[in-house]
Amino acid sequence: MSNKEVKAALKSARDAIRNKEYKEALKHCKAVLKQEKNNYNAWVFIGLAAAELEQPDQAKGAYKKAIELEPNQLLAWQGLANLYEKPNQIDVKGDLADVYQKLLELYESGDKQKWCDVCNKLVELYRQEKKYLEVAETWQKLIQMKQEEGAEKAELHQLWKKMIQLLKDSTRNQDNKTGQLLLTAFERALHSADTVPGEDHQNLYKDFIQCLSKFPHEVARLEKACHDMMALYPTMSYPLEVLCLHFVQSGTLSEKALHCFSRLLEMDASSGPGIIGFGMKCLKEKKYKEAVKSLTEGLQKTNQCPAAWYYLAEAQMKIHEHRNAVLSCSQALEALGIPEGPNLRWKSLVLQLKAETLIKIADADAPEEAIKALEQIVDASSDPVVSALRGQAYLNKGLMDQASKISRELLLSHPDLAEAHALEGFIHYSQKNYEQAEKSFLNAVERKAGTAEYHQYLGLTYWFMSDETRKDKGKALTQFLKAAKLDSYLGSAFCYLGKYYRDIAGDKSRARGCYKKAFELDETDEESGTAAVNLSVELGDMDTALSILNEVTGKARPGTAKWAWLHRGLYYLRTGQPSQAVADLQAALRADPKDSNCWESLGEAYLNRGSYSTALKSFRKASELNPGLVYSIYRAAALEQILGKYENAIATYQQILKKTDNYVPALKG
Questions:
Q1: Predicted TM-score of the model (pTM)
Q2: Omega cis (within 30) before 197
Q3: pLDDT digits over 257-286, tens only?
Q4: Nearest to 14 by CA among 42, 34, 39, 38
Q5: Which of 12, 315, 534, 556 shows the greatest Cβ crowding within 10 Å of its Cβ?
């Protein structure tokens, strides 16, 4: 086949492809290749025809042969790109990216429009594959090309905005280089904006600041962006809110942070981040109740702030609202999600605080929950304080051997750690080894004198220690006073101070004050509430007694606070108010239906009210529950007599006399 015939055959192949006669085209090409096996155009036409005949492997082989022959010729590369772009081509994205890269190289010095088209395709391919660094670098080349061609500022602005759009999902799995390119895109887009200040520019600034807040190492840049935006848009609270949340999350309470919080609250008194910041300030100043109030209010508006939930839990822990603190810790963990970077530190802090709080709760499942929380702390085994907490959790769970093992190991490895000595003290105290417990708690106090709990347990150790310290509880008093001074929310310290002043010092007034304080701190402490009421009655201060009882019964859910209902019911009975006595004694019985004395008092109240039949039922119920209540049996007989049930009355009187033959009221009856 002559050179002329080869050209003719190639022309026939081209015409056949144009007419969609692909098999015919293949014949012509094969004839050419018999004569010239390295004919570039013949291989390209075979690739084209085979692709249309859905023979992708043959097509790919033909294009690759052509490329091998002429690596810098466009046709084969274009054909291969078209082949890989077909929807039936699977697992070719990596190859297609390589083809696009080569096409960019070939178009660079020639057709700029085609270069841009391929560049767009390559960027989209990288975006689908989540190769954000390649997206960023390729798009930047496109912008550079446009800049060299003298593109208008508005066009460049749109290109930078497009780059931001392309990279917006990249912050989830950010590598540093991609992040820097994204932030550069924001800065260039902001500088190239046409209308400043303006709505589009403002929204772009917001997105930039939001993006910066996801980069923990870009603090200086974030602060600068917020201040720059505030200068441009002084009435907008958004940059201040982001800045405040940044300070909250970093745990910073510098002058700069405090200024930021107060400035935000001046601008918007209902701003969540501003109120949270104020709550943090209260926490630092040991104004714990105000801290709880502000942090709770702030979190109602800005609830996805793990640090704020942690500070709320800390404040609740300080005022011994342990159950609420556990809930706040759980909220913090939920807000953290799957933490990474600085949030890993937050997760460990929250889990440790949650465990500490659970150890203070007497529920059966609390120790197990505390152990689970501690197990989730990263590098927990290397932290002796976490080990001491685990020891306490084991002790609360009744696993004495595990607790003792941790205690021994800690005392060997960290002999100067207060928590190690305290754990040893808790173990001895639980076993009533008070002399050893005293030594341990003294060691703990020596190393950490500011911990109220250590003084409280040292006081309890002296309180229960021996006959000698039982007689002279001065040592116990000293420790309880120190504990109460260090932690004014420690209800148990005030309860034992109340016991001391009532039972040892005989100072009813001071005892009443301590019990009242203990009860105000912990409304579930029935012992302190009852003692405060009884001492108020003994001191002739019925107003205080009633105010305590009214407060408790006013808040009580049905079936709870029996002691308060009973005390107030008996007060009404004594003061001739039988109807009120009936209502309160019924409420007490809802909490404990098997209290025979309460049924007897209810019978008395009904009797005083003139409700004889109901009174009879109440006295009978009391004697059923406790057959030894002679007074209830006598009252039942007397009521049967009043109601004309003489035979029943006689039988009941005789029943009493069998047990107590000289019981005068029964004989009279």
A1: 0.77
A2: yes
A3: 889 999 999 999 999 999 999 999 999 999
A4: 42
A5: 315
